[in-house]
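Hello,

Our lab assistant flagged a job as stuck in the queue for most of the afternoon. It eventually completed. Since we weren't sure the result was trustworthy after the delay, we are filing this so someone can double-check. Below is the sequence as submitted and the structure that was eventually returned. Let us know if re-running is recommended.
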Amino acid sequence: MSVFKGTPISVEDMLAAKDNRFAYQQNLTKNYSGTIVSFKLNIPGAVKSNDIIVDIFNEGLLAWNQCIFENGFEVLKFKSSYEKTGPEYFAVLQDAPLLIKEMTAKIEEEHFLGRLFDFDVLDSKLQQYGRSQIGKPRRKCLICEDDAFVCGRSRIHDLEDVITHIVNLATTYLY
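-- returned structure --
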């Protein structure tokens, strides 16, 4: 029994959400010329939306909006959605993708909850800009500080331990 309360979603739900996200990003490129930011959370397990997850997401949006304001980014379009597959945010900005990637990586690295944030930055051809393109290493695991991709792929950590850690982080920071 997970410490996360909420409705579990299926693999099919997640694949459909991924397809919908890509279709929306394609639509944005047809209507706007600029850099696309897609923001969601790194939450393992089958529960992708509940009060804690929404609060973490809203904290990430607050940090992003502060970044937009402080850096004078020009936002052409934005949209937030709160689905059972997890909250998502999209924005199209007039500014350069590498500059925006640097700012989103800074949020992910410096915010207390930043390890849970997942900002993707794409250009108008939907080319994704990664951390390596701005001289940053891969992200670290929440539990052991090793490479997050390696730990996630190998499932070295118990899912309940990871979720408990996320809840503890959120509780410490938000409540």
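-- support follow-up --
The delay was a queue issue, not a problem with the job. The result is valid. The radius of gyration is 16 Å. The chain has a mean pLDDT of 93.
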